[in-house]
Amino acid sequence: MKRPVIDHWWQTETGWAIAANCMGLEPYPIKAGSPTKAVPGYQVEILDEKGSLLPPEKEGIVGIRLPLPPGTPPDPLEK
Q1: What is the distance between the alpha carbons of residues 12 and 25, in angstroms, rounded to a whole number?
Q2: Could you read off the pLDDT of 59-79 as tens digits, one per residue?
Q3: pLDDT in tens, 1-17
Q4: Alpha-carbon span 49 to 72, nearest angstrom
């Protein structure tokens, strides 16, 4: 029986996937090595070395804008 491989991306610090093909929502076409889309609640942006937003299809630094969605650990810098 063939089953698709559904990739995702997360970090231990987030406690939840940041990018995934959320099969309970609307499945997107599967592309090897791609987690597909940002998970609802995350505002993921790709930035250049100066912190400016890059257009689609450009490589850069992954940034996640606050506020973080429910389920992520609290910001350790927030007081």
Answers
A1: 24
A2: 999 998 888 777 776 666 665
A3: 787 778 888 887 777 78
A4: 26
